[in-house]
Amino acid sequence: MASAISRTLKLYQEAYSGHPKPIWSLFFLTLINRMGTMVIPFLTVYLTTVLGFSLEKAGILASAFGLGSLTGSFFGGRLSDRVGATVVIIISLLGSGLMFISLQFATSFNTLFVLFFITSMFGEAYRPALTVVVGDCVPRTETGRTMALIRLAINIGMTLAPTLGGFVAIQLGYNFLFWIDGVTCIGGALYFMAVVGKWPKSNRESREETQSAAGKVLPPYRNRDYMLFLLATLFMSFGFIQWFHTVPVFIKTVWGFDERYIGILMGMNSLTIALIEMPAIHAIEKNRKNLVAMRIGLLWLGISFIPFLLPKALILCFVAAILWTVGELLILPLNNSAALVLAPASKRGDYMAWYWMTWSLTNILAPSLGLALASEFGFSALWSLIIILSFTSLALYLMLGKKIMPDS
């Protein structure tokens, strides 16, 4: 028992140690940025209760964020190869900060739609640029562990933001939410500008050295393996996203379990990811079992919907959530890592643009399509489709083999 505890503690210590200074800078920057994201969880409530828009118009306005994220992912990645990823991160934070502050002064539908689009465009440019910096600073055999660390910052920030945001909205008003979001983004940009100049030059990719080879490298849309990987990611992410939109509706309206149980399931997922993901991914990369873990993760993610095809039972909700959680912690950071491994250094930004555009497309289409399919054909048909898509994604992973993760 003592030796097992000792090995576990050592694994945790190894998982959190040895990260380059730039990665810790990105961790704290992402934490600050996500903790300040207080408006988004209350956006629909603000639009309907404060500004008086109908649910239909509020939904259209919310979709502007999705369209902006697609555009921001594209330009954020492309510009990372041309002006540098650190420059894009600074522009992203400053731009989204100023836009968040300006949003509180807009009241008309058209103005809000444009401002939401621009705000999201600036904000989402951050993700491909951040991933490019990770690829520049970290050996590809450790990118899964690094992306798990960044995901930890996102999860902590997004857990605290709604709680703090709800308190601020009630006690101080919605205007303060916009100010907090804006100021934290701008503060994050100032922090990043202060630390980026202190990064060791050896930790930054030499764009001059790799640019000469750029002409020999296929663009992402002509790279067959990368396109198949993105298709596999699209199928996988379609199912994953349903857990945040369609699954809670099913548990509440069809199986009749109230919000308490939904909150427990979601909280159990977040807590497990925060506690286990980092050491788990470190152990997987250390033993070069990336491909095996990714396939197991996809399998568990797919079969997490099978319990919903069975007769109603509360225990099945928890079984499904456990399967989903294990699938998530295995597949998501390693999926991020695989995108980096497949990306040539000279076109890393372009490749990351396409990767994050795939996730943006999922975030736009998956909620509406999932609910529409459930409404038209029933939840059982939707769960069956997701299981099929998950296994199709797994088949694509098997077909690509070690092209996804050659060092595993």
The strand count comes to 0
Number of domains: 2
Major beta-sheet overview: none
Strand content: under 5%
Q: How widely separated are the two ends?
A: 30 Å
Mean pLDDT: 86
User: Under the CATH scheme, which architecture of the largest domain would be assigned?
Assistant: Up-down Bundle
SSE-based structural type: mainly alpha
**CATH top-level class of the largest domain:** Mainly Alpha
Provide the gyration radius in Å.
21 Å
Low-confidence stretches: 202-214
What does this protein structure show overall?
By secondary structure, the protein is an all-alpha fold. The chain has 2 domains: 20-196, Up-down Bundle (Growth Hormone, Chain: A), CATH 1.20.1250.20; 217-408, MFS general substrate transporter like domains (Growth Hormone, Chain: A, Up-down Bundle). Helices cover 79% and strands 0% of the residues. Helix 1 packs across helix 12 (259-286) and helix 3 crosses helix 4 (55-82). The longest helix has 30 residues, at 224-253. 45% of the residues are buried. Residues 202-214 have low confidence and may be disordered.
Task: Give me some keywords for this one.
single chain; 408 residues; mainly alpha; Growth Hormone, Chain: A; 2 domains; 79% helix; globular
